[in-house]
Give the backbone structure.
Amino acid sequence: MVAAKKTKKTHESINNRLALVVKSGKYTLGYKTVLRTLRTSKAKLIIISNNCPPLRKSEIEYYAMLAKVGVHHFNGNNVDLGTACGKYYRVSCLGIIDPGDSDIIKTLPGEQ
Amino acid sequence: MVKFLKPNKAVIVLQGRYAGRKAVIIRSFDEGTRDRPYGHCLVAGIAKYPKKVIRKDSAKKTAKKSRVKAFVKLVNYSHIMPTRYTLDVDLKDVVTLDTLQSRDKKVTAAKEVKARLEDRFKTGKNRWFFTKLRF
């Protein structure tokens, strides 16, 4: 049950942290590469958009459960997630390999 | 950040002739080899599942219904679905890389795997592994 509505402030801060990861860290975009990073245990955090097909979402969550990696459900669809990464295409799922200067790994999995 | 494609992990084969069959990882090659430059693993699985054994079956019928047909295969990681289950059957000495070089070596390895899997099925453990996946 959602305790409080996800405020605009935390959503913006996720976008800021994502922008910092894109600028300074390593990440992969897209379902195939996300599964590959999960299999090789390189991923530290997975972000899934809210309009990702439910079967694919469950599959990524299952892989992340096996790999003990956190999954964050992004508060926006794949268009928004692509924009948050600074790309001009849609991104349904992305995996963060190296957060760089960002503290997204420390702050995000605790929130959910 | 935990590696989970390790030996003894139960997986489901997704592509190929054995799609939908359950298998167990015997040896994994994360980096790939010269012939297969991608992550792959050597699996041994069930080609033909044992049938449902009920209480009123005679001993002869139970023996016939508990038969398992096994297969040995090298599969790409992207063609298997890992599960949370494991199967502790020691198949490392039976199934090695060179058993896949020739047809008769593969057949003898599959026969040995079949014997070990049938023993495990008869003990009643790992019930999930020996039930057919319905889809």
About this structure: The beta strands of chain A are 26-29, 45-48, 70-73, 93-98. Chain A is about 50% helix and 15% strand.
